[in-house]
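pasting for ref. prot 1 ->
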Amino acid sequence: MKFSADVSSSSRKSRRAHFTAPSHIRRKLMAAGLSKDLRKKHDVRAIPVRKGDEVIVIRGQHKGREGKVLSVYRKKWVIHIEHLTREKVNGASVQIPVHPSNVAITTLKMTKDRESILSRKADGRKARATRVESA
């Protein structure tokens, strides 16, 4: 059901907006869920992935593999994870790309900006919870 007249519900327009999104919007779209203990600690469900985070693959062929994020390749919508490589026929080793929605963040690389993002998201969650209780 459509709630806002400002947003199109057309599949064509949604797909075009997604696949032609600029880099600063792709950052938000390339978010990953937090592990259960991090979710409980920070009261936040998901956060954009960044280089240096430790993740575990939770979906797909490489389910269960863990490692540090080596790069976030926004142009191709993928991340590269440490120790997640494949041998080519000529002997060269290449990174296997994984979509961020298929991983869970187990350890966050904390910075001052990231702490403010987490606290802001947690405050918003608490505000919504109190608003629902009072209604």
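and prot 2 ->
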Amino acid sequence: MRFTIVFAGLLGVLLVPAFADYNINISDNNNSGGSGQQSVSVNNEHNVANVDNNNGWDSWHTLWDYGTGFAAIRVFHKKACIVHRMNKDALPSLQALDAMVKEKKLQGEGPRGPPPKGLMYSINPNKVNNLEQFGKSIVGMCKGVPTYMAEEVQGASLFFYSGKCFSVNVLWIVNISLCGGTAEN
């Protein structure tokens, strides 16, 4: 009986870090005038990464589904979900992201680290009717929320883009600009 209790206790101590979320402070001065906090969850079993950006009115949530190859960004103040294909050349692999977060390599990098990769997407103003095509994880996040598809614009520059854009900076890894459609709402 004692062995069972000791074994269960050790198992619990060893498994807790595997299920933990990792918080990355994304402000640039110990949160004085900064931009909130991002929380990262990596689920290796389902090949999914979640990033929550908690920043009041500008909060958003992104989900990268490495199994389906789709990503979704739920922008809370726009009350919309935007789905796009993942650019695997710009995003780290799930294992690399998990390692970066666990080793806290992203903590405190901010403006002093290398510049993030930039991706620009054009939002199709027509709502998506069938969320099932994007997989269960995205259905769970976007169900009941107006959802739009976005296409990556290759070689685009915000300097030359005439429409309004909403920018999502994910962990100083990638800066995603969502332009047109619901970005103007």
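The first strand starts at residue 22 and ends at 25.
The CA atoms of residues 17 and 140 lie 25 Å apart.
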